[in-house]
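Structural prep section.
Before we set up the soaks we want a predicted structure of the protein with guanosine-5'-diphosphate in place, mainly to decide which crystallisation condition to try first. Input record follows.
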Amino acid sequence: MFDNLSDKLDKAFHILKGHGKITEVNVAETLKEVRRALLDADVNFKIAKDFTTKVKEKAIGQDVLTTLQPGQLLVKLVKDELTELMGGDVAGINLSGNPTVILMSGLQGSGKTTFSGKLANYLLTKKNKKPLLVACDIYRPAAIQQLYVVGDSIGVEVYSEPENKNPVEIAQNAIKHAKANGFNVVIVDTAGRLAVDEEMMNEIERVHKAIQPQETLFVVDAMTGQDAVNTAKTFNDRLNFDGVILTKLDGDTRGGAAISIKTVVNKPIKFVGTGEKMDAIDVFYPIRMAERILG
Ligand code: GDP
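Run finished without errors. Recording the tokens verbatim:
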């Protein structure tokens, strides 16, 4: 992951490491290289520009050139700033509800159903919770079936009403079922479309309003680059979601989505998906991601 960006930055910092004495020109050249690397990783132009401008200002403010190891200080500045850009601290998940209701949103194919299973498995095995998975896709019977396969594989019950065409009712009934049967987390998997459309947005907005989830999570395929940012913005405008799940980070993907989405919608990235298996889930650590990007 992020080889591209990491390689580029390695090269950029190499310029600095090679010099005993660093000049303002070196710093400017390196930051130009950092900016190019961010652009190559699909980070939006303005975000990349603002980022390097900020690092440059800090470098000047801290008098980088007069310190003993200016290269290292600049690397640290870039790393700190990149960490900050991706959210700074780890964003937890709010499990305060009784039951806690978690609504999954996102386009079809983003990895919602897979992630719903991963999250249920994570809460079951790591947080000692009793989760219930809810199939709220009323359009594709295969989607309901897929959730059953996922639920079976991790030993988590799935709630569905195949004959009911009202997702609001299904979700509400599922919460009642959870309360009556001792489930303390309800994960509602919703219908996605291949692209944003009004009907889908209206439907998920209705479900959101009716069940008032503690956590509304937006799932997005990290491989979709700038499109990921636009989709995130649309969903956030309608749902004011609580966090982002970045899936498919195991693929040949660039790191730009993590940076851009956080900057544009200003919501934390909470988890990442790193494979198709149920245990391929990681809490998102901004600092680790920054270190990984920088190599
Ligand atoms: P949904 O339509 O949003 O529910 O998406 P699915 O959960 O069905 O996922 C779409 C495809 O992406 C499936 O083939 C999944 O196995 C795959 N997938 C989901 N998450 C990941 C991930 O983190 N890494 C990889 N490599 N594949 C994933």
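Observations: Strands lie at 100-105, 131-136, 158-159, 185-190, 215-221, 243-247, 269-273, 281-283.
Flagged for discussion at group meeting.
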